[in-house]
Amino acid sequence: MKKKLCLIVSLCMLLLGLAACGEDPKRMDYNGKSYDELKATSENLAQSLPEFTDAQIDEGIAYYEQYGDTIIVGLMKQWKEIKADVGEFVKLGEMTVEKSGKTLTTAQLMDFKGRDLTLTCVYNYLDMQITSVTLDENYSLGEKMQKAAMNTLMGLGTVFMILILISLVIYGFKVIPYLEEKARAKNAPEPAPVPAVSSAPVVQVEEPQQDDAELIAVIAAAIAASEGTLAADGFVVRSIKRRK
Fold it and tell me: In terms of pTM, does the model score above 0.85?
C-alpha cells in the first residue's frame, strides 16, 4: 500500500513539474510585471536607438553622465560604435524572456540590412529594476568560424613569438660570458715594455799568439834534455798541434 501511495505522489509531482515547464511565458507573472510590460520596455529602447543622430547621441551621453546614469550612457556609446556597421533599421523581431535565480533577462531581436542586433536587458528579479542593457551583434555560422580561426592563429602566433623570445634569451646566456671576457681584456692594464737589446758591436779579444819559432826551440830543448843530450841534431820538429 505504501509503495502505491509513493508511486502516486511521484506521478503527481511529475505532472505538476511538466505543467509548470509547459506554461506560456507570455502569460506568466514576473514579480509584478507581465510579459507585455517587459516587451514594451525593450521595444521602446530598441525603436528609439535608430532615430538618434550622432549629434543627439553625443548630447544624450553628456546629459545622462551628469546624473550618473551609467546604463543609458553605456548603451548609447555602444550604439554609436556599431551603428555604421549594421546599416538601415528594418523592423523588430521576437523577444524572449529567461529567468535564472534572482536575475531576469529579456532579449529583443532587431533586424537591420547589414547585420541583426540583440538588445539584452537584465533585471534584478527582487525589485524588477534594470541593472544592465547591452547590444550584441548576431554573426552567421561562417563568420563565427572565421573569427574562431583568427583567434586560434593569433594564439598560436603569440605562443611562437614567446618561444622565439625565450630562445633568444637562452642564446644570450652564451654571448654574455664572451662579452664580459672581451670587456675584461679591454680594461686590463698594459704590460711593461721590454728593454731593448743594445746593438753595440761585440769586441772580440784575441789571445796573443806566441811565436812558433820560439815555441819550437823550447820544445826541442825539453826533448834533448829528456834524452840526455845537449844538442837537438837527432830529431827535427816539423809541426806543433795545440790541445785544449
Answer: no
